[in-house]
Fold this protein.
Amino acid sequence: MSTTIEPKKISGFVASLITINIMLGAGIFINITQLAHIAGPISIFSYPIVGLLLLPLILTFTKLLSIIPGATFYEIGSLLHPAIGFITTWGYFIGKLASAALGLHVFTSSVSLIFPVCTPYVFLMEISVLACFGCLIFFSLKTGLPMQLFFLILKAIPLICGILSGFAFMQMPDLTSCPTCWQNLPATFPLVLFAFAGFEATCSLGNQIANAKKNAPRIILFSFFTTLILVSLLQIVFVCALHNTLPQMTDFRQPFITLFSKAFTRYPLFLTIITNTALAGIASSALGSSYSILSSNIWNLHTLAKHNTLPGSSQLIRINSFNTPVLITILAIFAEILYLIGTNSNIYTLQRISVSANILACTSGTLAFLHTTTTKNHRLLGLCALGTCAIFIYTAVQEGLLSGFAPYGFYIGLLGLGYILYRYAKHIPKRQPC
C-alpha cells in the first residue's frame, strides 16, 4: 500500500558510500582511452587541473549545504526562482539517468566480453538487470550499508590491479611529442567532470541524510578528494606504462588487457584469471554506479512531485511501506530503457548528456549561493566557483566543436519538455469544493 509518509533518514557514512560509488563508476575507466585520444600524454594533467578548478565549486556546495541543511536541488534553485528550481532538478534527474544507462551498458558489454555467448543478448540482459534494480529498490535495499560496501569492494579490484601492474612499466612520457595536445587539453575537461560527477548527489539525498548540516559538507569533501587521488593515479599509471599505444586504443577495456599481457605473459593461466577478474571488476563498478545513481536520483523527481510541479504529483509522491516511491521508480527505469534504445547505447552521447546535467546543477547552485550569502569571503568564493562553471561551459562548447553538439541539443530538448510539463502542472484547473 502506498502512502505519503516522509522518507527515512540514512547515516552520513552510508551517504558517503553512495556518493563514492557514483563517482567511482564507469567514467574513470572510459576516460583512460578518451583522454589519451584527445590530449595524448598531456592527459596526465587533466584530473589535477580539473580537481583544482572544482575546488571553489566543492567549497561553495559545502557552504551552501551548511547554510541550508538538507537542501535539495529544487530548494537551492528556488532561491533564485521556482522555475529555476524545477529546471535544475528536472535537468539533473533526466541527465543523470543517461549516466545510469551508460553504466548499465558498460556492465552488460563487459559481461559479453568475458562470456561471448552472451553477446546477442546484451539488451535483454540490460532489461533483466533493470528489473532486478526495480525489485531491490522496491524493497528498500537501495541505500543499505551491505549493498554499498559490496559494490565498493568489487570496483576496487580493477583499480588496484591496474595501478599495481602499471608501476613496473612506468616511464615519463615525452610531453613535447604532440604539439597540439596542450591546445586540446581543455576539451578533456567535460569528460573529467563526468568522472567527478557525484559529489553533488548529496543534494539528491539532502532531505534523507541524518544530521545533514554536519554530515553533508563532510560527505562532499571526503568523496571528492578520495576520487581525485585514485583517478589521477590511475590515469598517470596507464599513460606512463602504455605510452604512445594508449591513444590508438578504441575500447576502454583494452588498456587493462594490454597491460596485464605485458605483466603476466609468462603465466598464461594467471593472465586469464587476472584479466577476467579485472573486467568483472569494471563491470561491477559500472553496475554499482548505475544502481547508486538510479536509487538516489528517484528522489529528485519525488521532490518535484512533493512541490506539486508535475502533472499527477499526488500519485507520484506516494511511497510504499518500504520507503520507495514506486511509480517514480518505474518511470525512471522506463526512461533509462528509452535512453538505451534512443542512443543505441552510445557511450559518447550518454556521457555528454550526463555532463550537461552536472554543469546545469553546479551553475544553478553557485548562483543560488551568491544570491544567499552576504559576507565578502563567501561572495569571493562564489565568484570563483562561477568562474569554474564558465570554464566548464566553454570547454563543453569546445568539445562540441570537435565532436558534435547533438548530445547537448538533445539534452536541451529534454529540458524544454520538462518546462512544458511544469507550465501545464501550474495551469491544471483546481477542483472547486462542492
